[in-house]
Structures are given as C-alpha cells and as structure tokens.
Amino acid sequence: MPDPRRASQPWILAAAILGSSLVFIDSTVVSIALPVLQDTFHASASAAQWVVESYTLVLGALMLLSGALGDRYGRRLLFISGVVVFAIGSVLCGLSNSMAELIAARVLQGIGGTMLAPASLALIGACFEGADRGKAIGTWSGLTSVASAIGPVAGGAIIDHLGWRWAFFINIPIALAVVLIALRHVPESRDEGERGTPDIAGSLLITGGLAGIVYAFVASGQDGWNAATIAALCAGALALAAFVLFESKAADPILPLKLFARRDFTGINVMTLLIYGALSGLFYFLPFVMIQVDGYTATVTGAAMLPFIVLMVLLSRFSGALAYRIGPRTVLVTGSVITTCGFALFGILHDLHYWNGIFPAITMVALGMGFTVAPLTATLLESVPEEHVGLASGINNATSRVAGLLAIAVFGALLSGVFYARLGSQSASLSPQQRRDVAAQRSQLAAARLHDPAETAVVHRAYVDGFRTVAYASAALTLLSAAVAALTLPKTRRT
C-alpha cells in the first residue's frame, strides 16, 4: 500500500516553491516599478525608498521570531496565514492612491512575507527525510532561482502593458493556489518538545533599532542631519546595543550569540552583510538610472537584470563543487574581488547606457557572485554543528535582509548628498529662473518633472554622479568582504 505521506510530498514541495516565489518575485518586480511609482505619485526620493524599506524592515527584523513561532504553534498554520496576509497586502498595494497608502500596505506584505518565507523551508524539513530532503531542497532552490530570473522580465512587461497596479495584483492567483494546495495536501507539524517563551522583547528591540537607524539615514538624505535625524540615529543605536545585551542573557534568544564564537560562522555572516549590502544598495538605484535618466522602458529594464541572474545560477553549481575541492577561502576571496571589479566598472565607464556601460559591469558582478553565493552557503552550513544548521540558515537569511535594509538607507543618503552638491555646482550655467525650477523639484532627484532640456540635463548628470559614488561604495564593501574571507575562513573545507 503506498505511503500517503510520500504521495503528498510533490504537493508540499509545490506549495513551498510557489509561496517562496511570492516573496522573491515581489522584491524584484517592485524594484522595477519604483521609478514608475515615483513618477505617478510625484513622490520624493525618500518616499520611494520607504516603499522598499518598510517591507524589508519587517521582513529582516521578524524573520527569526517567525521561524520560532512556526515551530511552536504549527508550520502549516504560519505558512497559510503568511500567504493570506501577503495576498491582502498585495491587494491593498494595488488599490493604493498615495505613497502613504502604498507604504502601509507594504508593511502588511512584509508581515505576511516574514511568516511564509521561513515556514516554506521548515515544511520541507518536516515532511521530507534523508536523501529525499536533500533533493527537495535542491529542487526548491533551483525553481525559486528560476522564479527570481523570470520576475524582473515579466514584471517589467506587466508594468508597461497593464500598469503598475498589476505588479501587485498578479500575486493573488498564486496565493490562492498556494492556500488551496496547503489546505488539501500539507500536514501540520510543530516541535512537540520543551518550548521556551518566544523572544518578543528581542524582536521589538531589533525592530526599533533598525527602524531608528533607517529613518535617520532616509530622512537625512532629504532634510540633512538635524536634531530629529540625529536623535533617531542615537535611539536606534541604543536599541540595537540593548538588543545585543538582552540576547546575551535571554533564556531562549532569537539570536544565540554563542554561535558567533565560531570564527568562520562570524566571518560568513560579516561577508553576507557586506556583499548583500553592496548588491541591494546598488541594484536599488540602477532602475532609476535606466528608466529616468536613460529613458528605457520597464520591460527593457527588467530584461537587463536577466544576464545577472542567469550567469549567477549557471556558475553556482560549479563554484560550489570547486569550494569543496580547493577550500572556501580561495574561491570566496576570488569571487569577492571579481565582484569588486564589476561594481567599480559602474563608476569608471563613462557611458551608462546599457550595452556600453551597464551590460559589461553587470556581467562582471554576476561572474563574481557566481563564484560567491554557493560557496558562501556551503561554508555557512559547515561552520556550525548539524543540530544548529536551521538556526544558522535563519540568521544568515535575516542578515542578508538587514544588509539590504541598511544599505539602501545609507546609500540613499550618500547619493542625495552627492546629487545636491553636484546640482549646486552645475546649476551655475543655468538662468536664475531655471535654477528656481530645479530647486523646486530637487527632492524628486532624477524624477523631477522639468520641461527645459538644459534643466533636465543638469539634474540627470548630478544623479549619475551620485550613482557612480554608490557604485564605488559597493566596490569598497565587496573588497572588504574579500579581506574578511582571507582572515576568517579555513583554507580547506571543514570535515
């Protein structure tokens, strides 16, 4: 008689893949939609940043707590609840009539995402065993990578031909299919052993700390460093310090600090913070350059991201095997250095139109990341005892989210500072009326609605100068990542 659990496994895997794809696809599509959203609502650059930052803040800060809640109260319950909340948030995003409404809906999406993302992998871990679990995780990883590759291209086409609202409405049929599959085929599972109290206090401290720091940098990009932004930065830093102190004494912390006593585990997470910070920060601003400065459509901008994802996926299998043969240190140092060269090309190449500037640079970054992502994950899993692999993976996932959250905020302030400085020096060639026109809309950065070609050219040159500065900052982060790999990782793989 066939085992009913094995008969359900393909459906369980399908639900996990589709659920995770909601989070992956949404992140890439919204990045392409942001320049269009900013133009539609005549919004400032800081308001556009909060469309991403509000979502990522919730996702990064609450990821570890959500995983613990799934173990305690039921992984299927958390997964289905997350999909439903994400779908409701998507509907509200699509119906938004202002940036404030959109940002609030994105917070709801983030809450749903932080519930379903860790639960999807936890379901695979609970419902598969042995070799079947390894195959399931491999399938999940491969197909979610395909979804990430399709997302920007499909999202760009949807935005151009159906409108930006459908970039959110497209989530609804996927969410409905996931809920139906999960209700019918996914069994409930939870940790029946001794369970401590969920670390609510730690989650509130890290959320408040990150929120204060992110607000300070986003607001400073528009209003400068005044009393309010400095107070927010100090409050955020104090909350993060309190979080570390609290976690060192908590009985059941969401971030067990004892894991960081292992040198290679600490090194991998520092590398993750630096590399994903560089990637998230620069790739957040790239669609603005392509759409608002170069004049490409959303479809073309989405397709421009495809070589990066495809090359990275194709190289990951080879680089993962190479790291096992020659050791992680050499591969990760090499990958980080190549990535550094790619980011530097964004700053060095004079022409930032696609084939002359963006394609060579993005291909070099993809080549470097192809030698980095798989070895980074493999080294992470080998840096902790087997019983802590799930926890270590959750910490690393949250680290990558926090990296993007902080990088977009800090790089946004950096870009704004350079933009305003360049705008001041380059506006000298304009007439007094033209300077007033530019000053009236400078908070929108490259999205400023200017009808005079001379005014537009000055704004675009200033924005590109800011983007090049961000590219050099990204290069500095990945070069620092290479140094961290050289200092903290073993030359040969751990046995």
What are the salient characteristics of this protein?
mainly alpha; 18 helices; globular; 495 residues
Describe the structure concisely.
This protein has 495 residues and is mainly alpha-helical. The chain has 18 helices and no strands. The relative contact order is 0.12.
Protein architecture, described:
The chain is mainly α and 495 residues long. The chain is 82% helix and 0% strand. The protein has helices at 4-41, 45-73, 75-94, 99-127, 130-161, 166-169, 171-185, 200-223, 227-249, 263-293, 298-304, 306-326, 328-348, 354-370, 373-382, 389-426, 432-440, 453-488. Helix 1 packs across helix 10 (263-293). The longest helix has 38 residues, at 4-41. The mean pLDDT is 86.
The amount of helix comes to over 70%
- Residue-averaged pLDDT, rounded? 86
Low-confidence stretches: none
Contiguous helical run count: 18
- The tally of beta strands, per DSSP, is 0
Describe the protein's topology.
Layout: H1 4-41, H2 45-73, H3 75-94, H4 99-127, H5 130-161, H6 166-169, H7 171-185, H8 200-223, H9 227-249, H10 263-293, H11 298-304, H12 306-326, H13 328-348, H14 354-370, H15 373-382, H16 389-426, H17 432-440, H18 453-488
Helix pairs in contact: 1-2, 1-4, 1-5, 1-7, 1-10, 2-3, 2-4, 2-8, 2-16, 3-4, 3-7, 5-11, 5-12, 8-9, 8-16, 10-16, 10-18, 12-13, 12-14, 12-15, 13-14, 13-18, 15-16, 16-18, 17-18
